[in-house]
Amino acid sequence: MTKFDEATQAIRVDEGVYDVCLDPGYSIGGPLNGGYLMAVLLRAAVDASPHEHPVSTTTQFLRSPRPGPARVVVEQTKAGRTAAFARARLIQDDVPQLESLITTATLKDVEPIYAEESAVEMPAMEECVQLPDPKPESGMTLNAQMDMRFDPPTIGWLQGRPTGRPEARAYFRMAEPQDPDPYVLALAVDALPPVVFSAGQRGWAPTVDLTWHLRALPSPGWLTLLGSGRLVADGWFDEEVEVRDSAGRLVAQSRQLARVGRG
What we know:
Layout: H1 3-7, E1 11-14, E2 17-22, H2 34-47, E3 53-61, E4 68-79, E5 84-92, E6 95-105, E7 146-150, E8 167-174, H3 182-188, E9 207-214, E10 223-228, E11 232-233, E12 236-244, E13 250-259
Helix pairs in contact: 2-3
């Protein structure tokens, strides 16, 4: 079991009820990363399901839970031969923090009937760069859990040179050796810096709602994350992320609605 597996572990204590312990190692300067929190919810939802894989997840981030003990409650709404549907809530101090609608199924390793090629060509790995290590007092512990190599223009905002477009692109893998799985993908779809940074905005950009789809089980190796946005207006922005595995296959896709950074 890897550190990430332990950090997302859900222990069944009753039918549809799971104890979890939210790990401080996935903090983004105070709040916990949304992808990490979704992975915790999905561990419980898949355990409660007759199917193996979370193929569709929609999560509303009601509050910002703190590290420490919490509980996941899973309510099955329908279970069929090809898919099952559930509602899962992350509860801390008797207060709902996140709420998800989760569809599970069992994916097979089959050749696709149609597969669109990526419209973005990433530079070679050796041409990409890493973010500088955050200052200890920043509370940014998430960076230590991941190894990310960024397409240089998309982090030009660090030197005051944003591209003016909401975008972010990077190669991704866990810092501890681990083949990507659906729970790693849940983290990956929310691992990029907010795309609005590249449009010239800064500050904590809290996610309000995030939907992601598991499209295929990923091959071992690096993932490629391609993030973009379509509209930044009135204090809101959208972010879409396409995740491709080491074989170039589309394995996950997401869209979230978030608030423009503040603070």
